[in-house]
Amino acid sequence: MILVSTILLIFAAVSAVSNFLVLLSYKYEKKLHSNFVILIVNQAVADFIVSIIPMTLYTVNILVGYREAKVSRPDWS
Fold first, then answer.
1. CA distance 23 to 40
2. pTM (predicted TM-score)
3. What are the domain boundaries of the chain?
4. 20 to 30 A from 7, CA-CA: which of 13, 43, 52, 54?
5. What is the pLDDT of residue 28?
6. Could you give the CA distance from residue 61 to residue 68 in angstroms, rounded to a whole number?
7. Which of 19, 21, 11, 10 is nearest to 49 (CA)?
8. 37-50: pLDDT as tens digits
9. Residue 72: left if φ>0, alpha if ψ -120 to 50, beta else—which one?
């Protein structure tokens, strides 16, 4: 599970960085200001948000679930 979580974190980081570069290129390159590129920027914003929040939380959820499964808890019943 740790390997899977590491791979997911790498994918999230690469996705966030690449979408951030798309946003920076749109901001600084005036030739890209067209209607079609606005659709690309919209998709980059959505992908950036997804790579930052849900992908990271899902990875943490996998790690926490993995650690809780290894801890033996007393049976109080």
1. 9
2. 0.74
3. 2-67
4. 43
5. 95
6. 10
7. 19
8. 999 999 999 999 99
9. beta
Would you state the structure tokens that stand for residue 8, as one six-digit string?
A: 């997911």
Tokens (6 digits) for 25: 């290129």
Instruction: Read off the pLDDT of residues 15-27 as tens digits, 9 standing for 90 and up.
Output: 999 999 999 999 9
Angle between helices 54-70 and 35-52 (to 10 degrees): 20
Task: Give the mean pLDDT of the chain.
Answer: 87
Residue 21: Cβ within 10 Å count? 11
- Position 33 scores a pLDDT of 92
**Dist. CA 31–CA 12, nearest whole Å:** 29
